[in-house]
């Protein structure tokens, strides 16, 4: 049996625990966290809705920033009008002024900005030509979005930002690497793209008996693109079934695009809002963490000592799939 901790750079100090390994770092969360969100496009706006509805126990306020001031005004009004018919508290949404230093005065900065969203028709034609194997739309976004994340991460360093820099924009893992190059600390950065892949695998597992074990025994690893690794079970791994479920999970994105829609709702909520809230509350979630050579998506949680990453015994075939994905990620940036 192999362990995902074998991929961690040997120069990186870690603390091994039963079933997990801790990547040492500062405790960057509080009982009540101030969250600021960059960009209110389809994804950012949906993430904001999720944070407002789900974050009451761990988020005290949500600052919103977008280049379009009218969009900011609209979301400040509408999201603050979402409430329960009783006294339950929801995080207050506040508008951040363009160029405001307060953008970096928070416990978590959520990066949802994007320049290069592929047109629905382009991605749909890729599906018709053979699916994700012929075109991973996330790679189209890397160059443009990389410039954006570098700009915001560099400014965060300049202003002494000490919170969590959460990358939601695609492609998540390479963008995290760019944020690292900008000067942020490794355990300060997390990427949020794997949650929806767990959600898509679970979707198929609920509908097809051959994949049902995933719901109780399965795991997702790696980037949320072609090198995604879905394991039907970590205790009794079946390579054939796992690869079949992986293919269905990867293609789910393109299937939505083939219908003429941008597949942003599930990613914004499963990878975004839900995983962000779990991170702030110290709960287990799917997100990308830095292993020393690249950021890799896995099941982890924030703790007092840093980031605790699940580290279970893995079938050799499963480990080799994860290792291949990790090596490919190291080559991207």
From TrEMBL:
It comes from Candidatus Allocopromorpha excrementipullorum. One of its GO terms (molecular function) is L-lactate dehydrogenase (NAD+) activity. GO terms for biological process: lactate metabolic process. InterPro entries: NAD(P)-bd_dom_sf. This is Lactate dehydrogenase. Transmembrane segments: none annotated. The lineage of its organism: Bacteria, Bacillati, Bacillota, Clostridia, Eubacteriales.
């Amino acid at each position: 049996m192999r362990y995902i901790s074998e991929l961690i750079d040997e120069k990186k100090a870690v603390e091994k625990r039963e079933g997990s390994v801790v990547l040492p770092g500062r405790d960057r969360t509080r009982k009540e966290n101030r969250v600021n969100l960059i960009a209110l496009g389809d994804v950012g706006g949906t993430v904001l809705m999720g944070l407002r509805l789900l974050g009451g126990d761990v988020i005290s306020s949500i600052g919103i920033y977008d280049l379009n001031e009218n969009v900011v005004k609209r979301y400040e009004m509408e999201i603050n009008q979402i409430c329960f018919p009783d006294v339950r508290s929801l995080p207050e949404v506040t508008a951040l002024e363009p160029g405001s230093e307060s953008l970096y005065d928070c416990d978590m900065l959520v990066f949802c900005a994007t320049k290069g969203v592929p047109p629905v028709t382009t991605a749909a034609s890729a599906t018709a030509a053979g699916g994700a194997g012929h075109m991973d739309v996330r790679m189209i976004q890397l160059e443009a979005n990389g410039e954006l994340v570098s700009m915001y991460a560099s400014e965060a360093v300049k202003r002494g930002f000490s919170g969590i820099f959460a990358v939601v924009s695609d492609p998540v893992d390479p963008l995290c690497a760019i944020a690292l190059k900008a000067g942020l600390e490794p355990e300060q950065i997390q990427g949020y793209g794997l949650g929806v892949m767990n959600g898509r695998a679970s979707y198929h597992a609920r509908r097809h008996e051959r994949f049902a074990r995933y719901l109780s025994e399965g795991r997702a690893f790696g980037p949320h693109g072609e090198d995604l690794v879905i394991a039907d079970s970590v205790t009794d791994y079946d390579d054939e079934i796992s690869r079949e479920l992986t293919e269905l999970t990867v293609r789910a994105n393109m299937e939505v695009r083939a219908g003429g829609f941008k597949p942003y709702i599930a990613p914004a909520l499963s990878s975004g809002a839900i995983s962000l809230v779990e991170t702030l509350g110290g709960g287990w979630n799917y997100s990308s963490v830095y292993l020393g050579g690249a950021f890799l998506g896995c099941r982890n949680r924030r703790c007092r000592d840093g980031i605790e990453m699940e580290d279970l015994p893995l079938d050799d075939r499963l480990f080799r799939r994860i290792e291949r994905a990790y090596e490919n990620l190291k080559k991207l940036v």
